[in-house]
Amino acid sequence: MIRALILDDDPLFTRLLADRLACESDVPIQAVVAQTLEAAMQLVQGDSRTFDVFLIDERLGAGEDGISAMEDLMRLQPDAEAIVFTGFDDLEVGYRALQAGALCYLLKTDGLIPELIWRLRRLHGLRALDKATRQADRAESRKEAADVIVQSSLQMGFERAWLWWVDGLEDASAHDGAMQTLVGLAADGAYAPVEMPKARIPLDQSPYARHALASPAEFTRFHGEELGPSYLTRQKLAEGYPPPARRLAGCTAARRGALGRPARARQRHAGARDYA
Q1: Partner residues linked to 5 by β-bridges
Q2: What is the separation, in whole angstroms, between the first and last Cα of the chain?
Q3: How would you classify the pairing of strands 59-61 and 249-253?
Q4: What is the DSSP string of the chain?
Q5: What is the spatial distance between Cα 75 and Cα 78, in angstroms, rounded to a whole number?
């Protein structure tokens, strides 16, 4: 869940925004509203729970500057992010907001809510990923770390998550992929095979894993089966295994192989499906 503090001097806008975020976001958002900086600071100081993000109008009225207000609130909660709203397409305002530490600035247009929900969903995912990474780093075994990553993927909203280990990746004699093997570590969610920990796939038969490992980026994204049918699709490792939806983006973590598909696939473009 994301906790958000909305600071805007328009009570109608703040209530409408809070209601729409609660109703339209697939990630639970708990929004608290304030019309003045003083009220916002009292909310921050009087609540033992922290806010994940401040949503602030650039013009607060009565001489109050939204960007300065953002700086005051972020001094109270340095770990929180901030998004600034502006009614004008003013590059100078946006530059000031970013310089002051805002995550981004958004125009108050008809497209504000969908854009804001996308930004908050992304923030939620990044924070969940950071938490999972820290938990995995503290794990005492490879299996424990694998379970943490897979379960965290499901908590982020993925319908299915698979984790593979590339055996032979550090072996210089296996650099061509012919001697490297994808070893199943953990899987959960829809269509997750019971025998996943015993699954082994030759790396040279998995175009998606090879592409991901060859990429200099930390994450590689695929849209549908753009490289052709995956090994799992061809071999039907999991009974009833369905191929990725064409409209969705699949992602795999290079050298880690964390894979998944979003639970609300038909409604969202920002999901992923598993590849091997």
Answers
A1: 32, 54
A2: 31
A3: unpaired
A4: -EEEEEE-S-HHHHHHHHHHHHHH-SS-EEEEEESSHHHHHHHHHH-SSPPSEEEEESEEETTEEHHHHHHHHHHH-TT-EEEEEESS--HHHHHHHHHTT-SEEEE-STTHHHHHHHHHHHHHHHHHHHHHHHHHHH-SSHHHHHHHHHHHHHHTTEEEEEEEEEETTT-GGGTTSTT-EEEEEEEEETT--TTGGG-EEEGGG-HHHHHHHH-SSSEEEEESSTTSS-HHHHHT-STTPPPPPTTSEEEEETTT-EEEEETTGGG-SS------
A5: 5
**CA–CA dist 240, 237 (Å, integer):** 9
pLDDT, mean of each 10-residue run, the chain (276 residues): 93 94 90 94 91 93 86 94 86 88 91 92 81 84 86 76 78 56 85 70 86 71 77 66 49 40 30 44
Q: Which pair of structure tokens corresponds to residue 154?
A: 């499901």
For 250-262, what is the HEC assignment? EEEECCCCEEEEE
The whole-angstrom separation of Cα 244 and Cα 264 is 13
Q: Which residue has the tokens 């409209």?
A: 247
Unique residue bearing structure tokens 């990044």? 126
Residue 184 in tokens: 């199943």
Closest Cα to residue 267, out of 252, 243, 245? 245
The CA distance from 200 to 7, in Å, is 53
Give Cα separations from 235 to 206, 229, 276 (angstroms). Answer: 11, 10, 11
